[in-house]
Design a protein that fits this description.
The chain is mainly beta and 299 residues long. 0% of the residues lie in helices and 48% in strands. It contains no helices and 22 strands. Strand 7 and strand 8 form a beta hairpin. It starts with 20 loop residues before the first strand and ends with a strand.
């Protein structure tokens, strides 16, 4: 079975003796799927290899389960199993907090950077994510829109984790790798970023693109710095929330503005904003790399 990694939705937390909380998740589509297993822990780390988990229930082909109203904080994840009893990796972790009725605001991840490793045009490659954030965080990593792994140990990396960087091959052509960060032990998203990589030769020569958030999006003005390893004369067209914002012809390439030496910052409205950099050879329409990052302004 080629497992699709499960993505469990946020817990619906209700208070009161008559209320209950429900786990929900996306269905797997393999023809030999037999069902799902729900695991719980009283402490973190809570994962298949942690030793803290216990099997709560084995289910058939359903996509939700009522966990009742635990009296203490509990952590949950789900696995899928097939007709041969082969079991998938664990889903992302969700948390039930007794009496919790609202989602607590969390500050965005600080200084999130993605870096492509290896040589995608010639052989194996990978992507490493780094952050200066001092909180205990984890990253869920997606390859071409499908969940690939969850990494709780820096450096956060693709295609493998465990605190060190590895590389691999995934088929000639373009691939999108996205990191979505959460506070460890919760379903509270605090940041995400993605990078598009060209594996193998192409009429387009793709370069490594790195994006870094600067400033303090949670409390004040912020911006994004873009860089590329390409030594040629390049320009960057920058988009904010899908709309073209400006074109930058000289490093430092940045949003919202630059004088070529330092990054300026600004405010763009409370909520999430996506900033994308697309790099071209100067004076042409030849794209050589792109990356985007999502930032949450305000708490």
């Amino acid at each position: 079975m080629n497992w699709l990694r499960l993505v469990v939705g946020m817990l619906v937390c209700c208070s009161g003796s008559a209320a209950a909380a429900t786990l929900t998740w996306n269905a797997n589509t393999e023809p030999d799927l037999a069902g799902y297993r729900v695991y719980q822990c009283n402490l973190i780390p809570c994962a298949p290899a942690s030793g803290n988990q216990s099997l709560l229930i084995t289910l058939g082909k359903v996509t939700n389960f009522d966990i009742g109203t635990p009296t203490i904080t509990k952590y949950y994840y789900v696995t899928a199993f097939d007709t041969s009893n082969a079991e998938s990796a664990g889903s992302n972790l969700v948390t039930f907090i007794p009496g919790s009725q609202t989602t607590t605001s969390t500050s965005p991840l600080a200084n999130l950077t993605l870096t492509v490793l290896g040589i995608p045009s010639l052989g194996k490659w990978g992507v490493e994510a780094s952050t200066t954030d001092t909180r205990d965080v984890k990253a869920t990593v997606f390859l071409d829109g499908k969940m690939y792994l969850t990494d709780s140990t820096p450096p956060y990396s693709f295609p493998a984790s465990a605190g060190f960087t590895t590389t691999g091959t995934f088929g000639a052509g373009t691939h999108k790798v996205e990191f979505v960060f959460y506070l460890e032990g919760t379903a509270a998203e605090i940041g995400r970023a993605n990078v598009t990589v060209q594996e193998g030769t192409s009429t387009t020569s793709y370069s490594t693109v790195t994006l870094t958030v600067v400033g303090n999006p949670a409390a004040s003005q912020w911006g994004v710095v873009g860089s590329t390893t390409d030594p040629r004369n390049v320009k960057a067209t920058i988009y904010l929330d899908g709309n073209e914002y400006r074109t930058d012809h000289a490093g430092v390439y940045c949003f919202p503005a630059s004088n070529g030496l330092v990054t300026q910052t600004g405010s763009f409205g409370l909520g999430s904003h996506t900033v994308q950099f697309i790099f071209y050879l100067e004076g042409t329409d030849t794209e050589i790399g792109r990356s985007s990052i999502t930032v949450k302004e305000g708490l």
